[in-house]
Amino acid sequence: MKITLKEIALKIDGEVIGDETLEIYGVSSFYDAQPSDITFASDAKFLKVLDQTRAGAVIVPENFISDDRVSENGVLSEYNVSGSASKSCACKVALIKAKNPKRKFFRILSLFHPPKQPIKIIDKRSVIGKSFINGDDISIGSHVTIENNVTIGNRVQIMHGVYIGDGVTIGDDTIIKPNVTILEHTKIGSRVIIHSGTVIGSDGFGFTQDTVEGNNEKIPHAGFVQIDDDVEIGACNTIDRGTFGRTWIQKGVKIDNLVHIAHNVRIGEHSLIVAQVGIAGSSVIGKRVIIAGKAGVSGHLTVGDGAIVGPGAGVLSDVKPGDIVSGIPGMPHKLWLKVASILPKLPEIRKKIIALERSLALQNLSKNSKI
Amino acid sequence: MKITLKEIALKIDGEVIGDETLEIYGVSSFYDAQPSDITFASDAKFLKVLDQTRAGAVIVPENFISDDRVSENGVLSEYNVSGSASKSCACKVALIKAKNPKRKFFRILSLFHPPKQPIKIIDKRSVIGKSFINGDDISIGSHVTIENNVTIGNRVQIMHGVYIGDGVTIGDDTIIKPNVTILEHTKIGSRVIIHSGTVIGSDGFGFTQDTVEGNNEKIPHAGFVQIDDDVEIGACNTIDRGTFGRTWIQKGVKIDNLVHIAHNVRIGEHSLIVAQVGIAGSSVIGKRVIIAGKAGVSGHLTVGDGAIVGPGAGVLSDVKPGDIVSGIPGMPHKLWLKVASILPKLPEIRKKIIALERSLALQNLSKNSKI
Amino acid sequence: MKITLKEIALKIDGEVIGDETLEIYGVSSFYDAQPSDITFASDAKFLKVLDQTRAGAVIVPENFISDDRVSENGVLSEYNVSGSASKSCACKVALIKAKNPKRKFFRILSLFHPPKQPIKIIDKRSVIGKSFINGDDISIGSHVTIENNVTIGNRVQIMHGVYIGDGVTIGDDTIIKPNVTILEHTKIGSRVIIHSGTVIGSDGFGFTQDTVEGNNEKIPHAGFVQIDDDVEIGACNTIDRGTFGRTWIQKGVKIDNLVHIAHNVRIGEHSLIVAQVGIAGSSVIGKRVIIAGKAGVSGHLTVGDGAIVGPGAGVLSDVKPGDIVSGIPGMPHKLWLKVASILPKLPEIRKKIIALERSLALQNLSKNSKI
Predict the structure, then answer these.
(1) Chain segment C248-259, per-residue pLDDT in tens
(2) N or C: which end of chain C has fewer CB within 10 A?
(3) Sign of CA dihedral A41, A44, A46, A51
């Protein structure tokens, strides 16, 4: 596959500075790119060193030419870009000026790597239960089991080994990757992606104690999981059903790998949950929240809209909207940065205190001896 | 499905205060319940605000009427409950008085949501090896593989995509959820539940170093995993087989999701292991221990009976029976609470020390200048 | 299965001290061994208490007889081992003297527990795509799906429920355990073992923000995962493909269970990654690095050759070759040991500071009062 710079510029509403007829065969990162590749430079770090990429073309910001940080460094003169009027330059590398170069770059990446079109059939090695309602152009891979009363929308793709329990509903254009388990009564929206190994709708971890022997008796889990439109869920996640009512992943949420979401948790729209996070039962995460990798949120807490939880943080109390919380125990991020910088100094601090004590004791001694 | 309050009271050995003929159609939580639902109130938090649920009926403690905390707040007068003798009241909400309302409530939840009865057949799309011995009324879903010399008890349910290795034995009434992997020679008891995505009997992480080049040579894992009666294992767990001998999960243990249990670990009866915990090789966890979420236990340690390990704690040494350990590094819980409250004050503490040093230096200076 | 001591000694280049005709039926650990078992003793801990194992034979170091620590304790006289010349002794337990007894022991363990020979057929319940190229003596279990353009080497074993995506290549003698998911274009070397539940080649967690509403737009992941020869990957791992280019697990790397490896990470030869570790995007781990359980490495970092990261450590900056880093935040291991020993003393330290402040205030007061 090859595309000329002119065609690429058209697709991303950009402007070519250099040879419009240059043919591009692929996309790559700044330092790995070959002369047949296109790459991007979105900030000063790369814009200052455009001569260090071997790429044939670089997507740069719309206002690249007027970037003082760059011109101060003499990069522009080297590239002899004489303004957008001329469109002639002696660049080693061609440029495409466009708004949001990184975003546009990934659009081009999609051009070169279009998602594989699934074969729109139901594999005969799959098992489909009673009262199955399905939209057009669906694809069901091999070794899939779909139980009774399942409804799936148009262009849904269900891959190898997936299990879909009783009464599950799935919206349009959703993709379920191989070896995913979706248990009974889960509700999944449109344009959702669920990656391999993930389990949706397992029982929550809830027990009551037997009054006689103090043993743990299982609480039935009568609730379900609801996943709204445009959610992406990574590999090997576990999302438990509600005890009653729902565990609810709202529109546009993106979840990384190996994340645990307990019963009756709610995650607000467009929040990002990074790998190996755990969220305990009944906690409510707001909209556009970011929870960084390996952080843990205790049960029955509220994390407000727009809050950020730092990597590995242990959140044991509510987080206000917009707050940034880090550390163990969780505390305001700026405070944690100070605490984290002091922790390695604790041995030194301890020595100082001992010295102070001695010094004070000596003073008292000398004072007393005077008397 | 509908059940009258009278019938519900009979099933949980309770007493109706209000209209015994009221028909209940479902169960829900205190604030989500609708007039057709029953809910429960087990402590003062809810008992004081019984007017805030829309539920048709609430299960309350047997001694509700004599609860001083409630009557002090005037809630009883509002409900005009004139004692169990009359059984007449002007309640907005009917009550059922019973021992342990929470536990009884979940019994009723089970009434409304009975476990789905599996179809008692062996799906023809499953593969069963030689010398298979099975009890009555078993259910084997589609796309299951059972290797040779496997024995399973009565009413065992093995769902879609499960793999059962050579020589595995499974007791009565055990349920293996979809896409579980149970490797060779695993021994599983009766009434065990294993949730989806879990792997039982993977090789432990053991290597010896090649003396010539220092490379890592795999140690064969000749042991197995033993899971005793009434154990529940969550989704996407990994429980490694013993190097030799067994990794042993004893009777009544309950394990949450994404937990790692290494080779030759033993977990004692009725212990609770919360999500994302990791237990390293050969450690022995006692009976009725609780290990909270994300905690880690190093290898070759002993955690005594009845001990509690706090969330995210890093346990690097033995824990005595009944002790409560929290924090990183693990320490007595009460001490950790103090340490955790001081950590955010470290910047302030550091300033104080600097002030003390200056103050003392000034004193010494002034003292010296006097001389 | 039984083997005489003479035969065992031949296989491990060892020397029997005792009855060469003794028949051994199994292997076990020092304290669990029965008279029909062989075990090993590699260090003083066990060599001093050889009378405490019930094993029929013990593998001991080549230089056992000259071990002063042992002879000092009179153990040798008890065993009446009169030197290698005589080969006669009154031992309760027979000995085999050999180099590296632990390593040799595991060789014998392999003799008694040879890996199960797979049935070398392609199960008819598996699905194989177009242009499949395969070596000799392969084994493909039931309910496997292999997409188009896949190439696998000689003696490759693919077990129940595995998914192999388009264009995957696998070298000789590699074993893919049940219910593993290997997504398109993954490259796997020879003698690799991938344990159950693991997902190789899931999309990385990458999004760009929509400029209008600030929503997250998925970045396509055009790269792949490359796993070199002699790698072992544990159960329920998630290894994401590169955004472009590769996520690369190099020769001889061993990874435990529930580990997350993000897009474009590189792990150098013979490194060991313990359970529940997470490595964020584009980080580069050197050769022969050890990352202990539950540790986290942030994105775009470099961990140098031979470095060690301690259990649960939070690595937020580069680690130099050979350095040992522990704690949260990550710091030099020896420093962390000191910090960790001081943390439980923080309440006491705080009291000391308050006492110092009071003491100093009193001094100033008394000094002032004198004036």
Answers:
(1) 999 999 999 999
(2) C
(3) positive
